[in-house]
Specification:
globular; 158 residues; alpha/beta; Rossmann fold
């Protein structure tokens, strides 16, 4: 079973949305029995939280179920997952720091590397912003996930 992890700061907006979008793509491609998808955050929140309501609403409107509880990324995730996709450079740098021996650098990538309309390396954090900001981020994640799926299938030959 292949494993992919999406990482953002609080694990309540971007990474849970990316997880749900990618899981949906896996189902459409009949690969959901071969790939496990999860998300994590870089912030240490002692109280696991559900995904943010604005992101849940957008996902629901698109027929995608967004669920789960936030958790912080752990060092053992570096070995457990085959691909780790960070939402921005700050979170990517945090994951790099977990990899003190630099054994896993090649599996830690940025989500926007897969965005055909990339105008920044970072997926903006919509937390606390307007519904329009959440909509824009969801669009970025959908576009990026399509290309990421192609990359993932090619890289792991599935």
């Amino acid at each position: 079973m292949l494993k992919i992890l999406f990482v953002c700061a609080g694990n309540i907006c971007r990474s849970p949305a990316a997880t749900a979008i990618f899981q949906n793509l896996l189902k459409e491609n009949k690969l959901d029995d071969q790939v496990e998808v999860d998300s994590a955050g870089t912030l240490n929140n002692p109280y696991p939280s559900p995904p943010s309501e604005p992101m849940v609403l957008i996902a629901w409107q698109k027929g995608i179920k967004l669920e789960g509880k936030s958790r912080q990324i752990k060092e053992e995730d570096l070995e457990k997952f085959d691909l780790i996709v960070a939402m921005d450079r700050y979170n990517q740098e945090y994951v790099f720091k977990l990899d003190e021996e630099k054994k896993f650098y090649d599996k830690i990538v940025l989500m926007r590397n897969f965005d055909p309309k990339m105008n920044s390396l970072d997926v903006p954090d919509p937390y606390g912003l307007s519904q329009k900001d959440y909509d824009e981020v969801f669009g970025i994640l959908e576009r990026s996930s399509e290309i990421l799926m192609k990359y993932f299938r090619q890289k792991f030959r599935i």
